[in-house]
Automatic annotation (TrEMBL):
<keyword id="KW-0677">Repeat</keyword>
<feature type="transmembrane region" description="Helical">
    <location>
        <begin position="117"/>
        <end position="135"/>
    </location>
</feature>
<feature type="repeat" description="ARM">
    <location>
        <begin position="285"/>
        <end position="335"/>
    </location>
</feature>
<dbReference type="InterPro" id="IPR000225">
    <property type="entry name" value="Armadillo"/>
</dbReference>
<dbReference type="InterPro" id="IPR011989">
    <property type="entry name" value="ARM-like"/>
</dbReference>
<dbReference type="Pfam" id="PF00514">
    <property type="entry name" value="Arm"/>
</dbReference>
<protein>
    <recommendedName>
        <fullName>Armadillo repeat-containing domain-containing protein</fullName>
    </recommendedName>
</protein>
<dbReference type="InterPro" id="IPR044282">
    <property type="entry name" value="ABAP1/ARIA"/>
</dbReference>
<feature type="repeat" description="ARM">
    <location>
        <begin position="335"/>
        <end position="370"/>
    </location>
</feature>
<keyword id="KW-1133">Transmembrane helix</keyword>
<dbReference type="InterPro" id="IPR016024">
    <property type="entry name" value="ARM-type_fold"/>
</dbReference>
<keyword id="KW-0812">Transmembrane</keyword>
<feature type="repeat" description="ARM">
    <location>
        <begin position="377"/>
        <end position="419"/>
    </location>
</feature>
<keyword id="KW-0472">Membrane</keyword>
């Protein structure tokens, strides 16, 4: 209660709730008015005034604690009824070598033998809000500190050194309790610009910088600040591996291989959520590097780090091409569609989903992209994905097929000839409501303009076992 007041709350339950902070947390004391409680040592609020302000929180906290104690209570009760507490005492009577082990067993034995005599009143006092606030109250702790200092000041030799020690302890407390300063994106951009090398320390610094920028980019209010600070060229530069050290004759692995590139792709994907930054990212050459990252799977590397990198690269392409027809065309011209189709066959379902999501975006209202996806023989794999047990996989697959056949009668025929009709109808009974909706829309496209498709749908529905 540094402000010397208790009327800070704007509502009865004005406290921390998930991601929302209380209204009074970041306000200055001057906004509430002069302190109502004063003492010789400054603003001090008595305990009797604090308790009414926290009674709602205390009751809810107590209810949650009580409910949480029910499972261990029933377990303990069942153990007592079955005689298991005797077994526990016998375990403590076992021969343990060492003085410390014997002392610990003695303490445990005393607690087990006396715990059953702790009555309700004792537990209530120990768990009560009054007890907790009394123990944790700042005024009580300050009083204990002052008394402790007073006693130590009478010890010979300590009286002269005590003030310096106390000042250092207070400085440490203020340092760790002080709110951290917000991280400046410009500092991290500068680190990225100066650390494009295979040096261990440079790679570690670049990895940390990309992670910080990605975390900052999750807040849309900060995205423009990050872009204006020059983050995009620096991040694009780190989408590729730096030149190897010419003095490294042993060809050691690149430090944090794939990690820096993954962080850069993730950060760029978050920045691309804002349409006004999509073209700027592409103009800085990001697409070429992102497509090359997709091809790292072809080098025979199948580690978790590689799969995570590929997934971030595919997600970045998805965000860049979202509702941007020119960038969709640029992705095709940079050769991005063939590796995305190849990634549909990867065993990692997360990579499959990311690749399918990118193809779904690229196929939307872009005939050239649709044709290339089909020419890359994506249909057989997409139809297999329709039968996947992973709801996210068959949701993305049916979405890709839906965008491929939209306003494309020739592709629609190829999809039907490839055997997509029965698995699409099967998705109508999927546990995923979004897949059900996508399947229904796709069936509507199949039957919209072709009477033969209507007959095929009717015949397939009749042949599906109930």
């Amino acid at each position: 209660m540094q402000c010397g007041r208790v009327d800070l709350k704007s509502a009865l339950y004005d406290t921390t709730q998930l991601k929302r902070s209380p209204s009074w947390l970041d306000k200055d004391c001057s906004q509430f008015g002069p302190p109502l409680f004063q003492s010789e040592s400054g603003s001090r609020v008595p305990l009797s005034s604090i308790l009414p302000q926290v009674q709602v929180e205390a009751v809810l906290w107590g209810l949650g604690t009580a409910i949480g104690e029910l499972p261990p209570y029933f377990i303990s009760r069942a153990a007592r009824l079955s005689g298991r507490e005797v077994d526990a005492m016998e375990e403590l009577d076992s021969d343990d070598r060492g003085i410390m082990a014997a002392q610990l067993n003695q303490i445990k034995r005393w607690f087990l033998s006396h715990a059953q005599y702790l009555n309700f009143l004792t537990i209530l006092v120990l768990a009560s809000t009054v007890f907790i606030i009394s123990v944790c109250n700042n005024q009580l702790l300050d009083w204990i500190e002052n008394e402790f200092i007073r006693v130590l000041s009478h010890v010979p030799g300590l009286s002269s050194a005590l003030p310096g020690v106390i000042a250092n302890l207070h400085a440490m407390k203020d340092k760790y309790l002080k709110a951290p300063h917000p991280v400046s994106p410009n500092v991290k951009v500068s680190i990225l610009s100066d650390s494009f090398s295979s040096n261990d320390s440079h790679r570690a610094a670049a990895k940390r910088a990309t992670h910080v920028l990605a975390d900052l980019a999750k807040n849309e209010e900060v995205v423009n600040v990050i872009v204006e600070g020059g983050a995009i060229p620096a991040l694009v530069m780190h989408l590729q591996a730096p030149p190897l050290d010419p003095n490294d004759s042993f060809h050691n692995p690149l430090p944090f291989e794939h990690e820096v590139e993954k962080g850069s792709a993730f950060a760029l994907g978050l920045l691309a959520v804002k349409p006004e930054h999509q073209q700027f990212i592409v103009d800085n050459g990001a697409l070429k590097h992102l497509v090359n990252l997709l091809k790292r799977h072809n080098s025979g590397l199948t580690s978790r780090a590689v799969n995570s990198l590929i997934r971030r690269a595919a997600d970045a392409i998805t965000n860049l091409a979202h509702e941007n027809s020119s960038i969709k065309t640029r992705v095709r011209m940079e050769g991005g569609i063939p590796p995305l189709v190849d990634l549909l066959q990867v065993a990692d379902t997360k990579v499959q989903r990311a690749a399918a999501g990118a193809l779904r975006t690229l196929a939307f209202k872009n005939d050239e992209n649709k044709n290339e996806i089909v020419e890359c023989n994506a249909l057989p794999t997409l139809i297999l994905m329709l039968r996947s047990e992973d709801a996210a996989v068959h949701y993305e697959a049916v979405g890709v097929i839906g965008n491929l056949v939209h306003s494309s009668p020739n592709i629609k025929k190829e999809v039907l000839l490839a055997g997509a009709l029965q698995p699409v109808i099967g998705l109508l009974s999927s546990c995923c409501s979004e897949s059900q909706r996508e399947a229904a829309l796709l069936l509507g496209q199949f039957a919209a303009t072709d009477s033969d498709c209507k007959v095929s749908i009717h015949f397939t529905v009749l042949t599906i076992p109930l």
